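Progress note, project year one: complex with 3-hydroxybutanoyl-coenzyme A.
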Amino acid sequence: MYTQSMDTDPETRNPVAKVSAVGRPEEQRFQATVDAEGKIEPRDWMPEAYRKTLLRQISQHAHSEIIGMFPEGNWISRAPSLKRKAILIAKVQDEAGHGLYLYSAAETLGQSRDEMMAALHSGRAKYSSIFNYPTLTWADVGMIGWLVDGAAIMNQIPLCRCSYGPYARAMIRVCKEESFHQRQGFDIMLSLSKGTADQKAMAQESLDRWWWPVLAMFGPPDADSVHSGQSAQWKIKRVSNDELRQKFIDATVPQAELLGLRIPDEKLKWNTQTGHYDFGPIDWDDFWRVVNGEGPCNKERLAARVKAYEEGQWVRDAAMAYAVKRKARQHKEAA
Ligand code: 3HC
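Model obtained:
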């Protein structure tokens, strides 16, 4: 479904504006469709900047899904039971699937998978800051499910209503699977919190390391978010970075209380006037260091990704050879 526009002539696919078209009838029609909650589809007219914004966001999102397989994949061989191992394998496979839906959605905007991969492997493309932190203990696997996937769902539910059809549809399925991921993470945390003193201490130590990077995952404060204004007008982004962060904190604090865990923020306090939790300052310098390649695992993640791609070349070659063979057989049978 998502790749059908790739079959068309590259000159005519994605009939986007080549020049600024403010006020032109096609731009007015485009914005009217967006304003009326309609969907923009791959063959519809769209402003060039809209196409580029979507390509940037969807490809970054796809890269996050597949880089996100590494921190958890690291624990498949060390999961504490057969049941936990089976669940973790299924979850990591789901993340690969999310990457595939998202690369397919991005391809409908006119960029090939190879181009997106090249951008990731050369370090030109971004992926989520959160996957540059290490998974040092089993509790970190629970923390990724509970907090990282919990934050991902908070961000991605509004994306199900994004104005670009293929992205919105991909997100519906992704969110259903993320909800299972979040629950399996919470289930791990619940087991640890009912466990021995060492297991409880492991859970707390993990929360102490992950809490702040997870809050930063939602992106810079609204005042510093360069893309938010335009993306909101195009209904790509439906809820702002700060609003999502606040929603996440409000939802997560009671869960931490249930687990008997202490959130590592001295300033965290329920505010009866706002009806939200107040929280302490986020270290944005640290966030930008990680985004710009200097996080604890950036180099390791990228090297592992490039290695996996190179070692998988024979699989892609075999799949292509099989596709050519099958097409030739179909032609022969049809003749
Ligand atoms: N990590 C890395 N870069 C980030 C970031 C983060 N957590 N948050 C923001 N940035 C980057 C932006 O990409 C942008 O850089 P660019 O101009 O080079 O592209 C810059 O910081 C400014 O940020 P903005 O707020 O202006 O950018 P956006 O409007 O694009 O908002 C976003 C950022 C909220 C992450 C938005 O792009 C988005 O909603 N993306 C889709 C969801 C997504 O990618 N989630 C990543 C996690 S996926 C995941 O967790 C998988 C799960 O299965 C585990």
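Residues 56-57, 60-61, 64-65, 68, 95, 98, 126, 128-129, 148-149, 152, 155, 178, 217, 219-220, 225-228, 231, 237, 241, 291 surround 3-hydroxybutanoyl-coenzyme A (CB under 6 Å).
Confidence is low (pLDDT under 50) at residues 1-21.
No further modelling is planned for this target in the current period.
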